[in-house]
Structure formats: C-alpha cells, structure tokens
Design brief:
This protein has 342 residues and is mainly alpha-helical. Helix content is 77%, strand content 0%. It has 15 helices and no strands. Helix 1 crosses helix 9, helix 5 packs across helix 12 and helix 9 crosses helix 15. The relative contact order is 0.11. The mean pLDDT is 79.
Length: 342
C-alpha cells in the first residue's frame, strides 16, 4: 500500500504527462489477456453452454427492481458516467479534438469491451458448469469472488499458469493504480479549488495531494489491511457506489442542463467548431432526469427491502452510513460552492 500510494503521488506530482507512457501498457494488456482466455475457452468442452446462457435473456427479470438498479450501477461504474473522472480527463483534451465524436465512441467502446469480456468469461463458465454438473445460476459470477476466485481458476487451465497469474495480477494492480490516480487527482483538485478559496487556505495543489494520499494510506492500513479488510471491502463495494452513482447522475443532469444552463453547454460545443445536435436536447432536459430519479428511487427501495451483506443491525447502520456519506459530502461541497458564488 505504501508503494502504490507513493507511486500515485509521484505521478500526480509530475503531472498528467508522466502517466501517458503507462497507458501504452494499461490499455492493451487487458484486451490481450481476454483474447488469450477467449481462444483457450473456445477449445474447452461445454463453452457453448456458457454462451447460450449469456445470450438467452430471461424477460421476467425486467419486472424485478434489483435488475434495474444493478444494471444502472454497472453501466455508470464501467463507463465513468456520474463520476468526475470523465470530466477530469476531458479537461486534458486538445481544443481541436472532436468532442461529440467522443461522446459516441466512448459508450460504444465500453459496451463492446463488456461484451468481449463476457464472451471470454462465459466460455469458461460453460466449461465449469458442464464439467461439474453445477447450474450456471449457482456459480459465483459477481463481486469479489469473480476477481479473486473465478479468474485465477480460469488462468489455472492455461499452459504455464504461474506466468499468466503474474500477468493477471500485475494487470489488476496497474488498473487499480490508474483508478486511484485519477480519483486522487480529482479529489485534490476539488479540495484545493473549494476549500482554499472558501477558507483562504495557503496551500498548493501538490500539498493537498500529499495530505489526501497520507489520509488514504492511513485508512487503507488501519481498515483494509487488517484482518477484517475483506469485510470492509465487500461493504464499501456493496454500499458506496450503486445508489450514489445514480444520485450523482441526477444531480449532474440538473446542474449541467438547468443551472448552467444547457444553452451554455451548447455554446461551448459550438465554440469548438461542432454543432450541438438537437436530438440531444429533449433527452437531456426531460427523459434522462426523470429516468435517473426513478432509478435512484428503485435502487434505494431495493437496498431497504433486500437483505444486507451482514444480517445485523450494526451492519445495517454501517452499510447505510457508507451509502449516505458520498452524497452528503457532495451536498456539502455544493453548498460551500454556492455560498462562495453568492
């Protein structure tokens, strides 16, 4: 953890340009590994069972609340929407880079990557179900088990599994580094831009980054590196993202469409020599905010009705506290920013 946090701080300290060389490895490595797994999976008996399960929809699931909340959380988390990461990355684009084309290509590439990864994974899932006789519904296909149990088991079927295991976990570390880098940079920029101006704090962005890295390292060492680290990891994974991402999506739509307002966004797009499509206006103003609000309500209802990961009153309190913290912090920063503007 000390090494990872130190690398993250060093990268942010040197600026975004220092991270571009890591992208040359970070981007192709997962695709290379997934391609190898797909080729191997196609040689296994029963791989078509997994593909049949993957592409055979159960339409009755559309009438369950959990499917909608899980789908929304997965799309938002994998695409980076409703998070500040996409906005932060966009701030580093060149003025002559196509803006609207990126809004089309990024969701398509994210969708294609998800399908590619699913096809690769379910070829092995079908083999495991065929080999053991266990129905696919009873196999661990989500959460921490997918990363730390299923994928290592799949790599064990390849020739020289030790080498592939090293490549896989190196890829996981590098992907984690990339995620931690952008989240800490966003948090540092937000803290510096809001707190230093509001309270007149005389600290540089790099000092804010160092302080945030120290706090994150302390939390990781005390909580996640302890004997109960796996419990806290599952708690944060279960409660911190789903509801909050959908609420953030709704708030971002309100801010960018109604508070800025949308006409300013259209002017900025036109400033770069592109025309804002009229087709985007009605979904942004009406359909997307209503849909996001409904999804948020569905997800909250599902969290209240469904069993928690702990099954105890204390666990419920901790889980709901974790779930409420990001939204409360966001509202506090919005309140501070609005007071500053007024």
């Amino acid at each position: 953890m000390i090494i990872v946090t130190s690398l993250t701080f060093a990268t942010i300290y040197k600026g975004i340009a220092s991270a571009k060389y890591a992208v040359y490895v970070l981007v192709p490595l997962p695709y290379f590994l997934l391609t190898v797994l797909l080729i191997k999976g196609m040689t296994l008996e029963g791989h078509t069972v997994g593909w049949t399960y993957l592409f055979s929809p159960d339409w009755s699931k559309l009438f369950t609340l959990k499917i909608w909340s899980d789908a929304a959380s997965q799309v938002l988390f994998s695409s980076g929407l409703a998070q500040i990461t996409v906005i932060k990355f966009a701030s580093h684009r060149n003025d002559d880079d196509p803006l609207l084309m990126s809004t089309i290509l990024l969701p398509l590439m994210n969708f294609a990557t998800s399908i590619f990864a699913a096809v690769s994974l379910f070829s092995f899932i079908g083999y495991a179900s065929h080999h053991t006789g266990i129905p696919i519904n009873d196999l661990p296909l989500s959460g921490m088990d997918l990363t730390f149990v299923v994928y290592p088991a799949l790599l064990n079927t390849l020739p020289f599994p030790q080498i592939w295991a090293v490549i896989f976990f190196l890829m996981m570390v590098m992907l984690g580094l990339g995620s931690e880098y952008i989240y800490i940079e966003c948090l540092s920029a937000l803290a510096h831009g809001t707190l230093s101006q509001r309270f007149n704090l005389k600290y540089s962005p790099k000092q804010f980054t160092f302080f945030i890295c120290c706090v994150i390292l302390l939390i990781n060492c005390v909580i996640f590196a302890s004997s109960s680290g796996y419990f806290w990891l599952e708690m944060v994974d279960h409660y911190a993202s789903g509801v909050n991402l959908i609420i953030f999506l709704f708030l971002q739509l309100i801010v960018f469409v109604y508070l800025l307002p949308l006409e300013d966004l259209k002017d900025r797009v036109n400033l770069y020599g592109e025309k804002f499509p009229d087709l985007y206006e009605i979904p942004l103003k009406i359909i997307c905010p209503i849909f996001a609000l409904l999804l948020a309500a569905i997800t909250i209802m599902n969290e209240i009705k469904s069993p928690t990961t702990t099954g105890s009153a204390v666990g419920d309190f901790l889980g709901y506290s974790i779930m409420a913290t990001p939204t409360i912090m966001l509202l506090i920063f919005l309140f501070i920013d609005c007071r500053k503007r007024n």
